[in-house]
Specification:
- The structure is a single chain.
- This protein has 23 helices and no strands.
- It has 509 residues and is mainly alpha-helical.
- Helix 3 runs parallel beside helix 8 and helix 11 runs antiparallel to helix 12.
- It starts with a helix and ends with a helix.
- The relative contact order is 0.12.
């Protein structure tokens, strides 16, 4: 065999050796580290999105009562609506600021260090919201919700970053699904805690909002027992001994050599490079397609119609004959449905791959948009249609959880290398929060203008994203970060080569 042949087959040999070294199941320490990171990370995001819904009426009454005691007059409906909207939407502003600073914090403090410090915001928020009722200061609710948003914005960027960097190549997809599982688990927990049988009563609402401190305390107790990201230690800090120690704890002594070799190769490839700032990433042509991909996917994650489905869910359940006092329990069922789907996606992702799941998810959501538009249009035509609409609600949620809900966060990690990943997460997180704010602002007007036909807008978005993924996003399953980078560069080079070829052909004609 010649040297050229050896060079040709060397990547395949390395991959074969790496695959043979991989264990069938993740190490117990690795799973516990992931849970410790998630409980104070994306779990908080999901929990604080859903927990605010249950005490809506009670908080309205508290604001009204406080206003009357201060000014000896009742509050106008417009001012009450404005204050409540501020309490709810300030969470988004906090999240956007958190996402903006998350990249810088993760580079300076480390992934684990940032997660630990981030719990301070959750503890302050819990204290402020818990004190709002006894002090008679509804303003503390606004400040507290801002801090919960800040905590969620940092957590939803840094925690997937930590998971993606501690996971071995063979389990990166499964471990990355922890983000989606804990978001949906947080949403479900918030819905359950808001039931009247638990903390969903008038006298308990300050305690309900203060329970955001529980995940923060758990993470502060558990996460210190686990190491910093091995990639961060070796590539960013140059701490080879720390990296070895972390790998041994996370993977076991017998399974850490292959991953250390991968990290070392990535370090050698990035020699002389430093962590990039977000604005530098926009000027870097080598990551142009990766950046475009994560921006589009994060916009689509908020604008694909999942928020519209939850908006219409209450109406659909009521039309189906479910009593008003039972609707919260059915809503818990939708949260459980999304959580189970995220778990299922975690089991399938290493078998089917990222591309199949996310493309399939958007395709199924497109079909659901068509069916839901039809069933809502003929809602009064037959008693069957409300039940078909309910089936569409659950089918849409299942489709979202199967692909876009979980795979998007994994691709945020996998499409970038160590020096560009924190900046990419800052951009992706900021885009996600801006899209979240945009859909919250614009969606009521879309519903008023288009009514049930608003799902045709979401149909166009889902179809466009599915087509883009099919054409431009490579499969990342079982590939190292460098291999994924090379796939994008090869595809970019082919597209660049096609342009001059097309120009020459038109000139010849």
């Amino acid at each position: 065999m010649t040297k050229d042949n050896l060079d040709e087959y060397q990547p395949l040999l390395i991959k074969d050796i790496r695959d043979r070294k991989q264990p069938k199941f993740p190490n117990k320490s690795l799973l516990l580290a992931a849970c410790a990171a998630c409980i104070g990370g994306t779990f908080q995001y999901g929990y604080n999105i859903s927990v605010i819904n249950a005490p809506t009426v009670y908080v309205h009454n508290f604001i009204n009562q406080t206003w009357r005691e201060r000014y000896q007059t009742g509050i106008s409906e417009d001012v009450l609506t404005l204050l409540w909207s501020t309490i709810v939407s300030i969470f988004t502003l906090g999240g956007l600021i958190g996402a903006t600073i998350s990249g810088t914090l993760s580079v300076k403090l480390g992934r684990k260090g940032t997660l630990m410090i981030n719990n301070t915001f959750a503890l302050v928020a819990a204290l402020l919201m818990g004190l709002s009722y006894p002090t008679g200061l509804f303003e503390l609710l606004i400040i507290g919700r801002f801090f919960t948003g800040l905590n969620a914005g940092i957590g939803i960027c840094v925690q997937p970053l930590y998971l993606g960097e501690i996971a071995p190549t063979a389990f990166r997809g499964t471990m990355g699904m922890g983000t989606s599982v804990f978001i949906t688990g947080g949403i479900l927990t918030g819905q359950v805690m808001g039931l009247k049988e638990l903390l969903g009563r008038d006298e308990y609402w300050p305690i309900l909002l203060s329970t955001t401190c529980v995940p923060a305390i758990l993470q502060l107790l558990i996460l210190p027992w686990f190491p910093e990201s091995p990639r961060y230690l070796l590539i960013d800090r140059g701490d080879e001994e720390g990296c070895k120690k972390a790998l041994r704890q996370l993977y076991g002594v017998e399974n850490c050599d292959g991953e250390q070799e991968d990290i070392q190769r990535e370090k050698n490839n990035l020699a002389g490079f430093q962590a990039k700032k977000p604005w530098e990433l926009f000027a870097d042509r080598s990551v142009r397609w990766q950046l475009l991909t994560v921006i589009l996917l994060n916009i689509a994650q908020q604008l694909n119609g999942i928020n519209a489905i939850y908006f219409y869910a209450g109406y659909v359940f009521k039309q189906s004959g479910i009593p008003d006092d039972k609707i919260p329990y059915v809503t818990v069922g939708t949260g459980a449905c999304e959580c189970i789907t995220a778990l299922t996606c975690g089991l399938l992702i290493e078998c089917l791959g990222r591309k199949v799941l996310i493309t399939g998810g958007y395709t199924l959501m497109s079909i659901c948009c068509i069916l839901f538009t039809l069933t809502l249009s003929f809602q009064d035509a037959s008693p069957v249609f409300p039940y078909l609409s309910m089936a569409c609600v659950f089918a849409f949620i299942l489709s979202f959880g199967l692909g876009p809900g979980g795979v998007t966060n994994i691709l945020n990690t996998e499409l970038f290398t160590q020096t560009t990943r924190p900046a990419a997460y800052t951009i992706a997180g900021s885009v996600n929060w801006l899209s979240f704010f945009f859909i919250g602002l614009v969606f009521p007007f879309i519903v008023i203008g288009l009514q049930q036909y608003c799902f045709l807008v979401f149909l166009a978005i889902c179809c466009s994203v599915a087509l883009y993924i099919c054409l431009f996003v490579p499969e990342t399953k079982n590939k190292t970060f460098l291999e994924i980078q090379n796939d994008f560069q090869s595809a970019s080079n082919r597209r660049s080569a096609d342009v001059p070829a097309a120009t020459l052909s038109s000139t010849a004609i």
